[in-house]
Amino acid sequence: METTTLIPTGPPATRPRRSPARLVRAAAWIALAVLLAALPLYIDTAWLKAGQYMMIGAVGAIGLTLLTGQAGQLSLAHAFFLLVGATAYTVLAGPTDEERVIGLGLDPGLALMGAVLISALVGLAFAPVAGRLRGIYLGVASLSLVFLGLYFGQSLDSLTGGTSTGRTPATFELFGFPFSNGGPEIEVLGVPIRQAERIWYLFLVLTAIAFVLARGAVRGRVGRSWRAVRDNEAAATAMGVGVARAKAGAFAVSSAFAGLAGVMTVLWFDILKPDESEYGTYGINVSIAFLAMVIIGGLGSVPGAVVGALIVNGLPQALTLFSGDLGWFGETGGGGLTPILVSSFIYGAAIVVVVLFEPGGLAAIGRRLTGLFRARPREITREETS
Amino acid sequence: MTRNPLRTTAAVTLAAALALSACSTKAGSSGASGSDSAGVKSGVGVTDAEITLGVMTDKTGVFKNLGLGITQGNELWAKDFNAEGGVCGRKVKLETVDHGYKADTAKTLYPQIEPKVLGFVQLLGSPVVAALKQNVLSDKVVVTPASWSSELLDNPYVMIVGTTYDVEMIDGLSYLQEQGMIADGDKVGHIYIDGEYGKNGLRGSKHYAEQHKLDVKEVKVTSTDTDLTNIVTGLKGEGVKAILLTTSPTQTGSVAAANKALGLNVPLMGNNPVFDPALLSSPAAAALDKLYLVASGVPFSADIPKAKEVAAKYKAAYKEPANIGIPYGYAVGAVWGSVLKKACENKDLTREGIAKALTETDSASTDNLIADLDFSKPGAPPTRKVYVAQIDPAAEGGLKYVKPLFQAPDADKYQAPHQK
């Protein structure tokens, strides 16, 4: 985000259609996709579970990096929109015949889309506030949403199931194919494709869609208007960008991403349980974790947000799993180092290091690394801000 | 051209990915199952020499003291159990993991530890138990949650060791009435933490109130509230005759202090987790004389032979300060011992065998660390007996019994939420 694209750089029509660099890049993407698709055949359920958790983080962080990095609006409400998405999915897809809770019995695929839409609408409803405040004031105002979410999660028992027992979400199904251990028995290369593997592919597709949409938004007209508003509202207005509209749009889009992450969260946990305290699954600490992801990754960078999510959501999980496999850290005793403790230190240190030495985050480091491979002198291209 | 290395890398990666996917190591994995020479069937977590039981605890999060205490109690039991010869010629081994009271970490750790264990002697934390509910159901693995909510009993694989919060409340209220501290038609306040713990306690007081026409003033708090003075002021205005607590120890201290300072001086009655010996060194210590505790498990320093034995062994083996988790962890182990012996008699040490043995266990004894437990009625609390204790700064652990194990008639008639 340290570069500004307000200066018109001319249309990219001169870009060659099939430059070799593009081919290389496409090949790398395909290789990554194949690798990710092959992983479930290779790694254990516990690691798949950890990988899925990173993907949840990635989808949410992409949404926040659009809002905070591209449109310049600080938001601490991300966890609230996660809760909205999770609740919406559970209610929309829930069975209609339960006496304790409300369910609409929709097809889970539709319910997922409905949940994303509802999250976007709730985000839009916050737009009047978001449009009037900026910086830390917006951050604090958005924080209130987390506490509202906590309150509603507790009091609207018939939707959320209440804090006492929570509520089990409907199994995700697509055209009658369940993403659970049920349904047809599938084996690929001798590996049974069961719940963990199926959910992996589902999340992979959802993350890929989120990624592509976000990159598209950043590179397109929408992204330019967001950055224009971020950098100078007066200048943006002069250039014909509707400031209120751009801000509201950014908030709605970001909320939609958070809502999708919420649906993924509830599918990952197999339970919707509104928080008992403000530090749980949909609490303030989750909002802060998302902020940490986008800061570590580099504000405004979509791939950076994904990498940030790998670190923040993945590190505690990976360390605990490694320590289980390798027998690191002592077996008993209270005062010793444990994976959870170590990962919170690393995660804290990562933020400090990024802020001190590379405010552009991992995205800036990545840009420098890829720059080494390029023969011609660098010019500011559109990719820089994405 | 500098792009060639990149292209090569990409091609190699692609090829490698394809190659790797062609020879997966995951294929064909299965649990070792079969029968040994004595005809005992075994499955996941059981070898010819060992039975592995899982412990998912909190060593780093908010409940690390309790988690450590329970884990050490579990370990003391395993040591004793193995010294007595184990079961079916096998020794018990514990596999411990730390989830830091985080449901997401627990959810990831579970698939790693699950294929190694026969069952879980400890599953700490209500968010963790909630998140793992579906896994427990689909893996048919018996677990002992360190939570006493009767809402958990809709899961047939959940083994609650002790009385549930709702039953504790009913027994406690009937004690207060028996002592003449409350009467039919009185107003009482109930302060509870919104969540699995508090809601379950409230369920009990509401049930008792219906039977005895009490007027319960419900006050919901969050677990992080610390100063409840204004709530006590409000309850004083309502003219309550007693205050019921399903709260954290800090909140108990605040309520007790306000109860004295405001001159309300009504009896306070709380579930087992509302007291912590640390309260005795807090400013509220002098105000705790009105507090009655209801619990099914004994405190660390209880005047019971088995509790004394466990305490002595604990002091010999560990150096951390003791808490109520130690006798509880030991008692859970003892119940598992009974279930394992039952399963051994049935010649079935598979997970199904354990689940079946659990429902056949109708009087698991823990030598009075906890009342005898009956797991043969699905959905019902395994016991409805409690002790009533009062604070006594002179006693080790700060508690003295005012009423030994008993069960109120109202508790007997009470229908738990998932009782069949």
Automatic annotation (TrEMBL), chain A:
<keyword id="KW-1003">Cell membrane</keyword>
<keyword id="KW-0472">Membrane</keyword>
<feature type="transmembrane region" description="Helical">
    <location>
        <begin position="281"/>
        <end position="299"/>
    </location>
</feature>
<feature type="transmembrane region" description="Helical">
    <location>
        <begin position="23"/>
        <end position="43"/>
    </location>
</feature>
<dbReference type="InterPro" id="IPR001851">
    <property type="entry name" value="ABC_transp_permease"/>
</dbReference>
<feature type="transmembrane region" description="Helical">
    <location>
        <begin position="248"/>
        <end position="269"/>
    </location>
</feature>
<dbReference type="Pfam" id="PF02653">
    <property type="entry name" value="BPD_transp_2"/>
</dbReference>
<feature type="transmembrane region" description="Helical">
    <location>
        <begin position="136"/>
        <end position="153"/>
    </location>
</feature>
<feature type="transmembrane region" description="Helical">
    <location>
        <begin position="49"/>
        <end position="67"/>
    </location>
</feature>
<keyword id="KW-1133">Transmembrane helix</keyword>
<feature type="transmembrane region" description="Helical">
    <location>
        <begin position="199"/>
        <end position="218"/>
    </location>
</feature>
<feature type="transmembrane region" description="Helical">
    <location>
        <begin position="344"/>
        <end position="366"/>
    </location>
</feature>
<keyword id="KW-0812">Transmembrane</keyword>
<dbReference type="InterPro" id="IPR043428">
    <property type="entry name" value="LivM-like"/>
</dbReference>
<feature type="transmembrane region" description="Helical">
    <location>
        <begin position="306"/>
        <end position="324"/>
    </location>
</feature>
<feature type="transmembrane region" description="Helical">
    <location>
        <begin position="112"/>
        <end position="129"/>
    </location>
</feature>
<protein>
    <submittedName>
        <fullName>Branched-chain amino acid ABC transporter permease</fullName>
    </submittedName>
</protein>
<feature type="transmembrane region" description="Helical">
    <location>
        <begin position="74"/>
        <end position="92"/>
    </location>
</feature>
Automatic annotation (TrEMBL), chain B:
<keyword id="KW-0732">Signal</keyword>
<dbReference type="InterPro" id="IPR028082">
    <property type="entry name" value="Peripla_BP_I"/>
</dbReference>
<feature type="signal peptide">
    <location>
        <begin position="1"/>
        <end position="27"/>
    </location>
</feature>
<feature type="domain" description="Leucine-binding protein">
    <location>
        <begin position="50"/>
        <end position="392"/>
    </location>
</feature>
<protein>
    <submittedName>
        <fullName>ABC transporter substrate-binding protein</fullName>
    </submittedName>
</protein>
<dbReference type="Pfam" id="PF13458">
    <property type="entry name" value="Peripla_BP_6"/>
</dbReference>
<comment type="similarity">
    <text>Belongs to the leucine-binding protein family.</text>
</comment>
<dbReference type="InterPro" id="IPR028081">
    <property type="entry name" value="Leu-bd"/>
</dbReference>
